[in-house]
Amino acid sequence: MQMEARVEPLTGNLPAISWRWDPETDILSGAFKGNRKTGGLTGTVELTDAEGSVAVLDVNNGVICGLDVVVWPEVATVSELRVPAQLTDGRVILASNVSRSAIASLEVDTSLSVTTNGSESVFHVRIGARRPVEAVRVADNFYIEVDGQGGLAGFWMNNVPPFSAFEEEM
Length: 170
Description:
mainly beta
């Protein structure tokens, strides 16, 4: 299923986001406060695929304002993975058919893939097949991809700290 989304201009300052690992569960999380006052879904959207991968979007009044990668698909490593150079600052709003204010959570079946760089400081989560997208900077280290048909296409997480669960156990 394709999730419909639209890009709105950013009003105010670009939000800050910090990525953090849960060392017991391997969950990577980050969120910021949404700044939109009109209605829409406030809760979570769970993206799941047939392989068991799970990514959860944090949504506030229809605005995507966070991501948790809960169950990871196989992660491909490429040495030179870089955030797209051409970015638009804005907010990504889930379409009104998804952002019903009476719904607190929603589950969407899709396919997910993840790529990271050699140092695992940049992660790219793609929804569905590779296609042309617009990358929207919604926070200082969080970018959301929307395709030409208004479908949610992926996420970039930048400046991710090293996973240190094994270091803490020693």
